[in-house]
Specification:
The complex is a heterodimer of chains A (477) and B (475).
Chain A: H1 7-12, H2 14-32, H3 38-59, E1 66-68, E2 73-75, H4 77-97, H5 109-125, H6 129-149, H7 153-184, H8 201-217, H9 226-233, H10 236-260, H11 267-289, H12 295-315, H13 319-346, H14 350-353, H15 362-365, H16 367-381, H17 387-401, H18 405-429, H19 446-464
Antiparallel strand pairs in A: 1-2
Helix pairs in contact in A: 2-3, 2-5, 3-4, 4-5, 4-10, 4-13, 5-6, 5-10, 6-7, 6-10, 7-8, 7-9, 9-12, 10-12, 10-13, 11-12, 11-18, 12-13, 12-17, 12-18, 13-16, 13-17, 13-19, 16-18, 16-19, 17-18, 17-19
Chain B: H1 2-19, H2 25-49, E1 52-53, E2 56-58, E3 64-65, E4 68-69, H3 74-91, H4 97-116, H5 120-129, H6 131-141, H7 145-173, H8 191-205, H9 215-221, H10 224-234, H11 236-249, H12 251-256, H13 258-278, H14 282-302, H15 306-337, H16 353-366, H17 373-388, H18 391-416, H19 432-450, H20 460-466
Antiparallel strand pairs in B: 1-4, 2-3
Helix pairs in contact in B: 1-2, 1-4, 2-3, 2-4, 3-4, 3-10, 3-15, 3-19, 4-5, 4-6, 5-7, 6-7, 7-8, 7-9, 8-11, 9-14, 10-15, 11-14, 13-14, 13-18, 14-15, 14-17, 14-18, 15-16, 15-17, 15-19, 16-18, 16-19, 17-18, 17-19
The chains are: A mainly alpha (477), B mainly alpha (475).
Amino acid sequence: MTISFTSADWASVAPLTIVAVTALVVLLADLLAPKNANRYVAIGIALVGLVVAAAVCGRAYFGHDYAAFGGAFIVGGFSVVFEEIILICAFGSILLYGTTGEKDRIPGAVALLLWSTCGAMLMAGAGSLMTIFLGLELLSLALYCLCGLADRRTAREAALKYLILSSTASGFLLFGMALLFGASGSVALADLVSPALVSNPLLWLGAGMFLIGIAFKLSLVPFHTWSPDVYEGAPLPVTAFMSVATKAATLAVFARFIYAALPPGVDRRLLLPVWIIAAISMIAGNVGMLAQRDLKRLIAYSGIAQVGYILTALAGGTPLGLRYAIYYIAAYTFMNLGAFAVASLLSDDAEQGSTLANYRGLGHRRPIVAALMTFFLLAMAGLPPTAGFLGKILILSTSVDTGYAWLGVVLIVGTAISLYAYAKVIFAMYTPEGHGHTHDVRPFAPLAWISAVACFVLVLLMTFYPLTPSNVLPLVR
Amino acid sequence: MLVLLLVLVPIIAGLVMLMLRGENPIAAKATGAIVSAGTFVGALLVWTGGSEFSFRWLSRPFESAFHFGATGISIWLVLLLTVCTFCAVLATNMPRTREFVAQLLLLEGTMLGLFLARDLLVFALFWDLMLLPVFFVLMGWGQHHATAWRYFLYNFAGGLTLLLATAAFGVLFGSTDVIGREGVHVIGSWAPWIFAGFAFAFFVKTPVWPLHTWMPLTYADTPAPMVAVVSAVQSKAGLYGLIVIGMAFMPDYLRAATTLFIVLGVISLLYGAFTALVQTDAKRVVAYSSLSHLGLIVIAIVSFNPIALQGAVIYIVAHGLFSAALFLVLGYVESREETRSLTRLGGLGAKNPRLAGALCIATLAALGLPGLAGFVGEIIILTGVFQVGWTWVVILALIPIVLASAYMIRLYQGIMNGPEIADLPVRADLSWIEGIALAPLVLALVLIGVNPHALTTFDPTLYSVAAPAAQGTGR
C-alpha cells in the first residue's frame, strides 16, 4: 500500500512546520550570534517565526474544515482557534525570556519552547489517537528539558517530578488508547463514533483510562499534586508557558474527544465522573491557594480551579458551551501571561522573584506595577471589570441552560473561597512594607512591560467586546 | 452620555488620585470636593433633563448592554449619594488624605454605576465593585482586619448569588436589559431560586436580621466619612434592588415570601432598637438603629401598598440623610476626644455649642421629630401598612419608634450633657468647613420634612406592580 499526500495535507501542517523550522534557525542562531547579543537574536527570530505561523494558521479559519493525512490531522475553526491561543502563549512566554536572570538564560531554551509549541499545536488539530500521543510527547519532552535546564536544585527537582508523573499519565493515556484501538480496530477518532461500540466494555475501559490520562495533564484533583511543585521550580517563562499552553492543548484534545469522538448514548454516563472531579477541583484548587506563599504555586492552584470552570462550560456538550470555554481559555491565557509578566518585572532571580513576601508594599514602591498585578488577580478571581468576570457569567449561564446548575453553584462557592486568597495578595501589596529586605532590582525591562500592558488591554477589551468564535465545532472527519 | 460621565468621572478621578505620589491634604480634599460637587450638578441635570446611554455588550446567551439611565426611584438615590459624598469629602480628616478621598470617589462612582444601571448584569458588576473601596478602607484605616474580611466575604457571598441569579435570569428571559422596563415577568421552575438568589444578596446588604452580623463591626470600624456614605447609600442598594428587581419582575414570589419577610423585618426592627438601647459605642448605637429603621422599610416594600411604597422612598432618602449626618458628627466627636465610648464621653455641650447643635439636629431627625424628614417617612409607611390591614405589624412597629427616642436621646445626653469630664482633651469647636459639610444634609432634612411631595412621584412601573398580582405562578 502506498500512501501519497497531497499539497492540502502539507498545507494543513504549515504553521507547525514554520514553528519547527524557526526552532532550528533559533538553534543555529544561538551558536552563531555573538555572545552578548545572542539572547535577543534568538528571541527576535522566534517571535517573527511565531507571527508568521499565526498569520498562516489564521487563514484556515475562514476555509472549509478538512481532514489531512487520512484523518490524522484536522484543520478547521476549532484547531485554528486553539493553535492561535497556543501561539499567543508561546509569544508571551518567549517575551519573558528577555528578562529572566542569568541562571535561566540557557542557549537552546527558546528552541525547545518552540518545539513544545509545535507539539501543543499538533494536539489542537489531532484527529487520531496517534497524533494526540505524538503531540503530547513532543510537548512534554521539550518541557522536561526546559524545567531542568536552569542550574538550580528546585529546577532539577521540578524536572524529575514532572518527568515521572507525566510519564505515568502518558502510560494511562497510552493504555487507554490501546484499549480504544482494541474496541474500534482503528486509531482514528472518527471510528469511535459507532453505535455498535456502546456495549463494548473495551470502549468504556479505554475511554476511562484515556480520561484519567487527560485529567493528569490538566492537573485535576486528585491528579494535581505535581503542578504546584513543577510550576515553582521551573523558570518563569516556562511556568508561564506550561500554565496555559499545556492546558489549552489538552483541553482541545478533551473537547474534541467528548464532542465528536464518543458514540451517542455514552457521553452522559461516561463523563459524570469527569464533572465530579471538575467540581472537586474547583473547591480543592481554591482551598489549596489559601496557604500558598509563592506566586507560582498560587497560580498553579488557581489553574487547577480554572480548569474546573472551563470543564463546567463544556459539561453540557453544547456548541455555545464550547464557545464560552474557548472565551474563558483565551481570557485565562491573557491574565496568566499578564501576571507572569508582572512577576518577571520584579526580580531577575527566578527563585526570589515569585515569593509573595516580595509583593509587600509594592503599591507604594511601584504603584503602576502593583495596579497591573491587582488587575490580573482580580481577573483570575472573576471580579469586574475583567474578562474573568464575564467568562464566569457566560459559564454560569450555560451551566444553568444545560442542566448542570450544580456545577455553577460549585463554581460560585469556589470563587468565594478563592477571593480570600487573591485579596490577601492584593492587600499585601498595599500594606506599607515592614522591616526586612525586599528584592526589587529590575531597572527597566521593555519586553515584559509590553507583555504586561498588552495583556491588560486585551483582558479589558475582552470584557467589553466579548467576541466568541462561531466556527469552532470540533469535527473528526 | 451624561449618565456615563457621571459614572466614569469619579472612578477615573479616584484611580488617578490613587496612583499619584505625595501628600497634600488640602489639594486632595479640594479635588474630591470639586469632583463630587460636579457629580451633584450632573445628577441635577439628569433629574431635570434626563439622560440615557446604551452600548451593546452581549448578544448571546442573553442580550445585555451597558445601559445607564435614571429611573424614578434611582434618581433620588443618585442625588442622595452625590450629596453625601460631597459632605463626606469635606468632613474628611484622616491620615493619608489623598488615598482616602480617592477611595471615597471610587465608592461614589461604583455606586452611581449601580443605581444608574438599567441592565441586571451591569447592576451585578457594580454590586461587586462597590465592595472594594470599603474593603480597602477597612484594611488600611480600620482597627481590625477581621472586620474587613467579614464585611467583604459576607457581601461578596451575596454578590455571587446575585451573579448566579442574574445569569439564570438572563438565560430564562433572554435579556438582562430590563431594569425599569414594564411587563418583565420571570416564571418557570427556576424562578423561585432566582428570586431567592436576589433576595439573599439584598438582605445581606441591607442588612436584615439574621444576616446583619457583619454590619455593627463594619460601621464601628470604618472611618466616619466613609461609613456615612456606606450607611446612607450603600445599605440602600439592597432595598433599591428589592423594589426594582424583586418587586418589579418577580412579584409573585415576593408575595409568596411576604410572611417570612415581615417576620424578618419585625425582628430587625425590634432587635435593632433594643440592642441600640444598651450599646456603649456611639457608632454602634447608630449602626443598630439603622438595622431597626431599615427593617421598617422592608416591611413597607413587602406590603405592596402604594402609600407604603411612597413612604419607603421618602424614608430611604431621609434615613440616608440623618444617618450620614449622625456618623459625620460622631466622627467629629471621635477625632476631638479620641474615643466614642458613651461611658467615657460626657459634658461636651458646654464647651462645644456648635458641635452639640449639630448632633442635636441629627438625633432629632433620627428619632422622627415632626417637621424633619424621618417623621414623614415613618408616618406614611405606617399609614400604608395599616391600610393593608396588618394592624399587628403596625403596633409592633410603634414600639421601636418609641425606643428610637430613648436611644437617640441617650446618645445625645451621653456625649453632650452631664458634668464635664476632666481628663477628656479640650479641642476647638466645630470649624466652618466641618459645618459646611453638614449643612446640605440638614437643609435637605428640613426641606423634605416640610414638603415631601416631590419624592412621592415615581415610576409608573412600580404602580403597575402594586396593582393586583400579575398572571402566572411558578409552573
